[in-house]
TrEMBL record:
<feature type="transmembrane region" description="Helical">
    <location>
        <begin position="173"/>
        <end position="192"/>
    </location>
</feature>
<feature type="transmembrane region" description="Helical">
    <location>
        <begin position="212"/>
        <end position="233"/>
    </location>
</feature>
<keyword id="KW-1003">Cell membrane</keyword>
<keyword id="KW-0812">Transmembrane</keyword>
<feature type="transmembrane region" description="Helical">
    <location>
        <begin position="40"/>
        <end position="60"/>
    </location>
</feature>
<feature type="transmembrane region" description="Helical">
    <location>
        <begin position="137"/>
        <end position="161"/>
    </location>
</feature>
<feature type="transmembrane region" description="Helical">
    <location>
        <begin position="101"/>
        <end position="125"/>
    </location>
</feature>
<feature type="transmembrane region" description="Helical">
    <location>
        <begin position="271"/>
        <end position="292"/>
    </location>
</feature>
<keyword id="KW-0472">Membrane</keyword>
<keyword id="KW-1133">Transmembrane helix</keyword>
<protein>
    <submittedName>
        <fullName>Carbohydrate ABC transporter permease</fullName>
    </submittedName>
</protein>
<comment type="similarity">
    <text>Belongs to the binding-protein-dependent transport system permease family.</text>
</comment>
<feature type="domain" description="ABC transmembrane type-1">
    <location>
        <begin position="102"/>
        <end position="292"/>
    </location>
</feature>
<dbReference type="InterPro" id="IPR000515">
    <property type="entry name" value="MetI-like"/>
</dbReference>
<keyword id="KW-0813">Transport</keyword>
<dbReference type="InterPro" id="IPR035906">
    <property type="entry name" value="MetI-like_sf"/>
</dbReference>
<dbReference type="Pfam" id="PF00528">
    <property type="entry name" value="BPD_transp_1"/>
</dbReference>
Amino acid sequence: MNTKVAVSGMADLERSGAANKKPEGNILLKRKALTGLIGALLKHAVLLVASVVMILPFIWMITSSFKPGDEIFTSSFLALPSRWVWGNYKAAWHAAPFGRFFLNSSIIAVGVVVGQLITCSFAAYALTWVNLWGRRFLFLFIVATTMIPFESTIIPSYLVIKQLGWMNSYIGLIAPSLTSVFGIFLLRQFFLTVPKDLFEAAKMDGCTHFGILFRIMLPLSKTVLATMSLFAFLHAWNSYLWPLMITSSASMRTVQIGLRYMINVELGTQWPLLMAASTFIILPVLTFFLLMQKYFIRGVMQSGIKA
């Protein structure tokens, strides 16, 4: 009898203790949820402010492209035009041969993208799967070249292109950008995530290195290749100094050089036309980015950082 009473008393104590702990647990969960909510709100607030700061120049560029010349700097920063001058875009288009400039920039951008996809794929595969002596040192040396500024190599590159007779030509505009250290790094990091068993199984089936690259590695690397294409296209489209150096005829100039036509020695900078030209010049870049956005995000996530 005494034993039953003791057991019953212990059970009552356990139930009362659990009942006391339950409210405390609920309070801790609520505090944790509130802390997480506040943290999420702060993150979104910071991102919102950063987004507004980054988009303000684009808003000013678009609104200024519709303003009369005397309102560019006299009105408020984000004020809408008092009179919408749609003719600024037509005047900007005819101020320079932008039709030819767009064609040149498109050919150069496509050539650079295709060239980098080919050279970076071969280099990244060799640095990952081919048993080369000093392979790791070679990769570190290639990555270290990113510390060399472009300005220090532009004169030697110019002399080489001149000696080859490639001035005022598409090959001269494309050749210096046919490979990319960033592309090699990005692809190699992705290749390192591919299971080694897959590579060894392909070798046992008699597949050559070319077969493994084109049948296995590249199909698995579609998102990373899309990311590389986006960066290569952006770099080629926005190139200014190199096309300016090796081209002397208007028929080989690019869209970025076309913006110089809006600067008149006598009239000064024609800001409405310059903003209008800048607006339609970035449209191909924005379109390409929107088309490749989902692949860009997946590519960055899949490439990873693996030694």
